[in-house]
Amino acid sequence: MPDAGRTMQAAARFSGRAALVTGAAGGIGLAIAQRLAAEGAGVLMTDIDAGRLEAAAAALGRTGAGIGTMVADLAAKAERDRLVPAALARWGRLDILVNNAAFQGERQPFADVPDEEIDKIFAVNVTAAAALARAAAAPMRRRDGGVIVNIGSIQADLPVPSYAAYVASKGAVAALTRALAVELAPAGIRVNSVLPGVIATDNFNRELAESGRGARDASLTAALLGRQGAAADVAAAVAFLASDEAAFITGAALAVDGGRSISRKADPFQLSFGDRTEPGNTE
Prior knowledge:
Helix content: 40-55%
Radius of gyration: 18 Å
Structural class: alpha/beta
Distance between the termini: 32 Å
Order of helices and strands: HEHEHEHHEHEHEHHEH
Number of strands: 7
């Protein structure tokens, strides 16, 4: 695994730039905010969980990073509409947008998923990402460029049973990424996506423990590299795509999955969490 401490001491590639990161109170979103801030960016962190967001921002603030926070439910138009103006008010610019926030819903057979849950999954994962990209594009155009990074998932191509609505939403994010890359290229705005595989976040480990498998299956992986990913792995990919080092990359989908998407190994993720494709199966 890469040395996160050493990696984050890279040159200040984002000095003087401002970023907006959604779903930033923990896991991948927090790692992304931390990485961008460590490389000099001012970062507006947003999340629906006020307590976790403030705790995360306070920890980053103690490192001297330029951090702002705003609690927002991305499913609510009025709340997400405040985010880009808040970044502009704080830094006078917005150079990087990372659409990381996602709602998966409850794992259950698709036939049992209520309409309200499907609506929320698409509102958070797709509608909010599109709305924020549209809002961010305006100030980026005025500065002759910017970067949008959408966090997708390898599940769009390797779906796991009982996540149908979430998988469909990530497929929409993939299509949105390509469409925006085409449309925004003349304005100098690059749009790419990062596709995480199994990432050992706190939420993942908690769900694994609740599944009854716990530490016994914690190290199992179908990834070719023989380990689960870390949030820092995803953050490093986002930082690369957001940087000038990726100046000739747009419309790309960068898998950060340890080779899972080309692996023929049995998938312990499904074994660990149970196959819930049949009604009533709650193993």
